[in-house]
Write the structure tokens for this entry.
Amino acid sequence: MRCRVCGRPLTNHQSIQRGMGSECARHSPPEHLANHPSVKVQKWVESAYSSARSAYLLYKKRQYFESLYLAHLAIEKMLKTLMIIETGQFDYGHNLNIFISKISLTQNMPEWMRDVCARMNQFQTAGRYPDEKLDLLRTIEPQFVQTEIKNMEKVLMWLSEQTKQ
Ligand SMILES: [Zn+2]
């Protein structure tokens, strides 16, 4: 049996039951959101996780800066998803912490996750404005990006969990 996302052969029991490997599972929408009654929500969630998958793949290809840019985008889309669930619409903009402050479902977000989002904001700004990008590029370590990608996965999972209430 093969992973239905990437096509790689599945070996362990849990992956076979799920129909995909653990790596792909971390970058695929959870069931309750993939099958959300609102088609709009389904589309946003799919798009958020697609960006998360790209962030991970770019990290693997050592495109560290672009990886973090996509990680920001994944969280941004997930926050907008929560906003759509709450209000039926979303605000434009890219500042993750402003979204967090406006969404009721994120009011109990742990401090360390807010810090992750604040750092991600820097990378999205630098990704848009190359003057700032050059300074940041000099400071990026692969280990840092690896940690931030894991943080992105945790933030996405936490945000998904909030929509179960
Ligand atoms: Zn896979």
